[in-house]
Amino acid sequence: MTFDLTLLAPYLGDLAAGARLTALACAFALAGGLLLGVMAALMRTAASPVARRIADVYVDIFRNVPFIVQLFFLFYGLPEIGIEMSAFCTGVLALSLAGGAFTSDVIRSGILAVEPGVLEAAQVSGLSRLAIYRRIVLPIALRSSVRPLGAVFVNLILTSSILSAVTLNELTGSARIVAADTFQPFEVYALLLVLYAAMTWLVSLSAGVLHRRLNREHG
Prior knowledge:
This protein is an all-alpha fold. The protein has nine helices and no strands.
């Protein structure tokens, strides 16, 4: 067996397009997951037992059910009740829901880590509960959560490889097509390993740099 990456040269454009689609889907999912995670974390730390229960049910479902089952339900199940979405929108929604469940744990830990004295001082100053969370609690929680949120984003990138199961030709889907066309699966999937490793390393590095910068500025 010979290892010849030059055979893949005509297909680099297809792989690059798949990588861009993966990056775009993960970027949207990161934003959606962060929004859902913050909302769920606030509900899980709220005084209302109803709000806490609703958030706990959401987190339990999307954290404990296999992602591919969630994906198939959204892509194949929802059309049966009249809700249809493109493969890309379905993938982003599925990643956002799953990512939000894990993000809520991270944000919740950050909220609970805020020192009681800080909250007491804010209450004494006359700030409303909404203002305290918006101006004090969430900034502190998010700043302390950068590294674990980076790990969540890395997991989103890895999980996005399953989106090819619903006909979305992201990076893994594109690689599968190239492997079938070239009959060179070893070279194709070796390159795929390198690309995923590079993307996840870049995210981890960026999260580390951002964490150090934020904590240096507020240290």
